[in-house]
């Protein structure tokens, strides 16, 4: 018995991938891990609850959103642009990390993670939030609520929530243009 496959072509971290034959019904996290060797997205609950597996879907209108890769089929992403946690740091010509993204750097400075399993999901959530705030800044009085809403669905079994929150707040407050004064 053979497994039915269908080609998939997408852009991952700025690079076109495919067409690659992938089994119909293959979840995106498995496609990333097994076909692209991108293992940063973590399979936590496998039911879309913990959000450790989220990737960023870049939409054609310039917005982005988190998508849970453990419950979303790889073929959903056919023809789309996706970013994984591996796509945030700046690399040199040899593929070596030369600079972390502002979110990654603040997570390190705030010792935001303990085991690190949930960190890729939090990095992607915070990145989506920063991109949203660049388009639509919030008032200083709305920062805490906005960050909480953005991170709320993510589960950290080591209870690093406060550190993640503080790191994201640090990035938001220290990135020009994300906060508008007043209400």
From TrEMBL:
GO terms for molecular function: 2 iron, 2 sulfur cluster binding; metal ion binding; oxidoreductase activity, acting on the aldehyde or oxo group of donors. Signal peptide: none annotated. Residues 6-88 form the 2Fe-2S ferredoxin-type domain. InterPro entries: 2Fe-2S-bd, 2Fe-2S_ferredoxin-type, Aldehyde_Oxdr_Iron-Sulfur. PANTHER family: OXIDOREDUCTASE WITH IRON-SULFUR SUBUNIT, OXIDOREDUCTASE, IRON-SULPHUR BINDING SUBUNIT-RELATED-RELATED. This is (2Fe-2S)-binding protein. It comes from Duganella violaceipulchra.
